[in-house]
Amino acid sequence: MTRAADAVRRLDQYIDDLRANGGMRVFTRAYKRHRPAAADRGDGFMPFAIAEQRLRRALIPRLISGSVGATSSLFAEVFGE
After folding, report:
1. What is the pLDDT of residues 32-67, one digit of tens each?
2. Which string of b and e fits 63-73 if b means at least 16 CB within 10 Å?
3. CB 15 within 8 A of CB 56
């Protein structure tokens, strides 16, 4: 249970750091670009809360391995690019 709690703390800290350094603004802008593009194609698009959950899910293996990498590759994973 301690490892799980530690992993949650690291994930929350990383998200907090993204918010502090503007990374979440970049994520929000990417979301706002993808949503109307999907609508223009006639496709539905996930709500923002789901996109943020997918971001968190994509971060977990990267935080465990210690190599988060570029946020652009994270966003591509979240938005299915």
Report:
1. 999 998 899 999 899 999 999 999 998 888 888 877
2. eeeeeeeebee
3. yes
pTM (2 d.p.): 0.80
For 80: left if phi > 0, alpha if psi spans -120 to 50, otherwise beta; the answer is left
Of 17, 18, 16, 12, residue with least CA distance to 30: 18
- Residue 13's Cβ-count burial label (10 Å; 0-12, 13-18, 19+) is exposed
Q: 29, 72, 27, 73: which is closest to 52 by C-alpha? A: 27
Residue 48 contacts residue 31 (beta carbons within 8 Å) = yes
Q: Helices (DSSP H) in the chain: which residue ranges?
A: 2-21, 23-40, 48-65, 71-79
Per the CB < 8 A criterion, the answer to whether 75 and 27 are in contact is: yes
